[in-house]
Amino acid sequence: MRVRIKNALSENAIISLVTVLMIFFLFACGGENKEGDTGKSVDQKTNTSGLSDWELENGFGPVKKKLNLGPIDKTMAADGEKIFESKCAACHKLDERYVGPAQRNVLQRVTPEFFMNTVLNPDENLEKHPHSKQMLAEYMTKMTNQNVSLKDARALLEYFRLLDEELKNQNTKK
Ligand code: HEC
Predict the structure, then answer these.
(1) Is the CB of 91 under 6 A from ligand 1?
(2) Would you identify the CATH topology of the domain 50-173?
(3) Mind giving me the DSSP string for the chain?
């Protein structure tokens, strides 16, 4: 009888020890995962795309690091509007679906860096990026490379930053 109680006690002790060890390892592993966390808006744990976090958030193209965006430059935005009229309006309207998606709220769908990379390098994004692929499936047309210079792509971005700011101001007034 005594022996049994003793055995039972040590069994309990072993079970508790194993539980403690399991909890310890769970936390230890969790900590390891977090080390690679870049603090960006793409959650590593949900990034199952096979792309890096950077690629998933910003697409493929010449823009390879976060842009240092200052206050909106209205002169640059006005240039961007002209470029939009001449190079993009054949396929995009601001508020309606056309050959491609409505663009006024584009910066609510994609990051500024993704925007520029799509404009500068649509083909590679169409081939590799899930957002572009999904849009292609929906619009059934490939956005063609418009040979936009880096400077013009930046001006286009400024135009959409201005439109985005106007949208946000409208929303706060409501
Ligand atoms: C030949 C038609 C065509 C032209 C010209 C065109 N686009 Fe597109 N664009 C599309 C289509 C179709 C899509 C969606 C499918 C895809 O990505 O190809 C698209 C997608 C996009 C996207 C992807 C992001 C999103 O969610 O909307 C951006 C940004 C964009 N276009 C901006 C531009 C800008 C800026 C220009 C002018 C420099 C331009 N496009 C010129 C047809 C075009």
Answers:
(1) yes
(2) Cytochrome Bc1 Complex; Chain D, domain 2 (1.10.760)
(3) -HHHHHHHHHHHHHHHHHHHHHHHHHHHHHHHHHHT---SSS-GGG--SSS-HHHHHH-SSS--S-----S--HHHHHHHHHHHHHHTTTT--SSS-SSS---TTHHHHS-HHHHHHHHH-HHHHHHH-HHHHHHHHHH-SPPPP----HHHHHHHHHHHHHHHHHHHHHHHH-
Give 2-55 pLDDT, tens digit per residue: 556 555 557 777 677 777 766 666 655 544 443 333 444 555 567 888 999 999
Domain ranges of the chain: 1-31, 50-173
Its pTM stands at 0.79
Q: Measured from the CB, is residue 148 less than 6 Å from ligand 1?
A: yes
| Ligand 1 neighbourhood includes 126 CB (under 6 angstroms) | yes
Residue located nearest, by CA, to atom 8 of ligand 1:
143
Distance 143 CA to ligand 1 centre (A): 5
* Alpha carbon of 110 to ligand 1 centroid (Å): 12
